[in-house]
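Margin note from the TA: students keep mixing up input and output lines. Inputs are the sequences; the output is the structure of the whole complex. Example:
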Amino acid sequence: MSPVRRIAFEEWRLMRRDRVAMGGLVLLVLLTVAAAFTAWDQRQAAAAARALHQSQVDQEFDTQPDRHPHRMVHYGHFVFRAPGALAAFDPGVDAFTGHTLFLEGHRQNSANFGDVRQSSLLLRFGQLTPAFVLQVLAPLLLIFVGHAAVARERESGTLRVLLAQGVRPAQLVAGKALALGGVAVLVLAPAVIALAAIAWTTPEQGGPAAVLALAHAAWLAIWVVGITAASTWLPRGRDVLLVLLAAWTAWVVVVPRLGPELALARTALPTRFETDIAIARDLAAIGDSHNPDDPYFAGFRRQVLARYGVARIEDLPVNYKGLVGMEGERLTSELFARYATEAFERQERQLAQVDQFAWLSPMVALRRLSMAVAGTDLWQYRRFVEQAERHRYALVQHLNRLQAEQLTFRDDKSSRDSRIASTHWHGAADFHFEPDPSMRGAASAAGTLLLWLVALSAVLIVASNRLGKETR
Amino acid sequence: MNTILHEARLLWRSPVSVAALVALFLLSSLAVVLGLREVAAQHATLSRLAVLQAQDLQAQARTRLARQDAGTVAYYTFHGTWDPPSTAAFTALGLRDAAPGVLRVRALALQAQLHEGETFNPELVLAGRFDYAFVLVYLAPLFLIALLHDVVSGERRAGRLATLMSLPGGGRRLWMRRAGLRAALVFLALVLPVLAGAVVSGMPMAAVATVLLATAASVVFWGGLSLAIGSARGSAAVHATALMGTWAVLTLLLPTLANAALSRGVPVHQGVALMLAQRQAVHGAWDLPPGDTMDRFFRTHPEWRGTAPLPEGFHWKWYFAFQQLGDEHVADRVAAYRAGMATRQRWTERLGWLLPGVGVQAVLHRQAGTDLTAQLAYQDAVTAYHSELRRFFYPYLFEEVRFGEADFAAQPRFTPPMAAAAMPWASLAALGLIAAVAAGLGARAAGRVSVRDGT
């Protein structure tokens, strides 16, 4: 047996005898299992509730009676954001964004009924998910179990003996790291099993699930290497513990909050209030479709008449009111898209500022990566909102075209009395969200995590060289 | 007094302790500065929006008054409502980052408008704010643990324990004095920035007192616990481990478990259900005979029964009647939805009687008016204002009164909800009780320190 493995075995033997360490390990493993079940259960419940609501509103839309198409434009449609399978591992922003979006004509509504507005402050303490256990609690256990690994040998004088017996410092340090790595593997195992189960039931999530497992393995590896390095470098066990606890506090508790805070202070977002008013102003500047003398819509009328080669709107083969509706919707939707894109880009700039804090804490990179891969980050939410907006536009224009083509200008007296057959809206409102499978942004976060791992490994190597010199 | 000064001199010679106190003071100051900044930004937003809203109203008056028709004005005119942050909001920013602090409503069906969200970056909100509540709940205990865990074991390690125990005034009184001094300095490092912030923001004395009491309770709790565990057998490292584990369980784990239990035990699905039901009620009305709609409306609003019958074709009073009926149709669901949220809030407060972190959060956020209760109060204020808007417009609609410029100017204005939060006495008392128990445990353990224990 190599000295490295012998040292690791010896370390494990010690850990087994330490009731506190074993208790902590068992507790953490049980907690991960509980977290996996709870998070999976909550995801299933959310997915079922949203699917139920979706089919309910789809059916309600289809069974609306004969109506004027413009009434259907105002009746609108609801879409529900179904959580992806990996949201059971890391729900990300799901509780903070709404998941219900009301789509209607001339307006862009916000997603609402996010959990954060429906819950007491407890949500701010975190959600019980495998990601929370691995990111926040697992490093603490590794610190408690591993901080004394090398320092203990030094303080009790066995270090000298070991080295005198021909164990090379690198072997000793590698053995201790291996022992702690074994604990990390045990801690990681339940989450990996949960991820494997998700990948088994939804095979297209296999790749992302593997990336999540690897990323969290890298995170625990960072701690294993860092803890061993601190234990090798610092002279006394209590110093190691205090330094590591301080590092944990800074990495896990302080920096992940400070980064967003400073990004918020630097880049503010406009309120909906302002955006709504700005859009209304821009629209008023373009023209008023109800005003017969409005220059923009007079020009539009000329164009339409020219296109169909007639002199009066009454002679058009299509209903002019429907065409005006389509033109108005086109104009408003362009503005909605412009303002929404601006707001999302500003939010992404905020996140780019937050990303800089990954140089202070790898947790920042890990969280971003975890949410991006689980499909629960801002980017996926943006995809949902933008796809829903495109769907809204297509639906409203479909209904406006029905008004243009199924009703004549002369018959289209009022939206209460002129109706078309309800068969026209069957199936028109069905919406399917296509998440972005590209795991955008995950690569750079993974790079940052690897850099941390490499940097701390370098520290560990230097520390183990020092160990050799100091005992010589 | 002399002994305290002596202890202070000893502490002053420990660079790590001094650095920890300074660091805590700086973190608390940073949290206060960021909190004040955020509140100032919210006020700036509100005054910017007030100007914008006034301009928008004027523009509306120009375009919508042409037909002197109240229905057109009521349909198109958005009215601003706002929820200004309290003077204590900087200590605990709470839900104000995710819930709207401004909302525009018009006289149409309310429930479709009331739940509108605000534009915010969900990834930033997910991280949570760096405010005083955060420093007090998450960071202060860690600093207390760092400063207090080796009050006894440090002396033992240094070989001074036997000497100290044999001196007059040694034993319990010595440890209590030492721990008390450190805890008092932690308390000062925490509250001095808040007091400065309170002066800047003009916080009322009652709110200041609440913050001081909550801080004191938290410091005493963690100080007492640190002394209790730190006086037990074992080395400083074991004590630090045990304390840190306790902190992680009380502050991170149990609240998180409780949240999982609460969202399962008290589901809140009615929000979506009420939106869906209301839409069916409102839009279904277009297909019902208008006379039936008016009959149903008159049942709850008999005062308009005697007015002119509906003419052929469209009439605004019919339109607004079915909008109101849409809201009345879902009144039960609204009540159930709010009851669900109130239940969650109540259980959280009860949990705070056991978990000091949750208790401190609950107290600070209640005092700051930034919790779920405050959000519901804002919604109530918007609802009351909306009813006022309806009452204002109905005479014009039902009695066919022409709507002129003077009428436009006379439209009701919103008054924000009263910020006066009641002192959260029950939660504070519970916090005080937990703190007293921890202090008692600490004092008892400090009296039992013996020279022979140790590693």
